[in-house]
Design brief:
mainly alpha; 2 helices; elongated
Length: 102
């Protein structure tokens, strides 16, 4: 925040942990590190999203273009497992009767 005092400029940095200097024109190391980390994180996120989309497109091309299904075996095993869980287990009902003899 800058203002004139006695015909000269006087600037006061609102957040001195981010900017410093006579006119608050310099960034602190803390702000520079923060900006670098933000850019790095954004770059990594963009790369991860791009790789995920490329993987999905690649799998679709394999499946629908070349009729190759790399996860067919796992899908069958999962369906068998789900059918086993959905099927009620048939257990014979056993009647147990205790008779006490004195």
């Amino acid at each position: 925040m800058c203002q004139t005092v006695n015909f000269t400029w006087k600037c006061i940095c609102i957040d001195s942990s981010l900017y410093y200097g006579e006119y608050c024109q310099y960034q602190t190391n803390r702000l520079q590190i923060k900006q670098t980390l933000t850019k790095s994180f954004a770059s990594i996120a963009i790369i991860a999203i791009s790789l995920t989309c490329a993987f999905i497109v690649f799998m679709d091309v394999l499946k629908y273009g070349f009729h190759i299904d790399p996860v067919q075996i796992e899908r069958r095993q999962l369906r068998k497992h789900q059918r086993r869980l959905a099927r009620p287990s048939i257990k014979p009902k056993v009647a147990v009767r205790f008779q006490y003899i004195s």
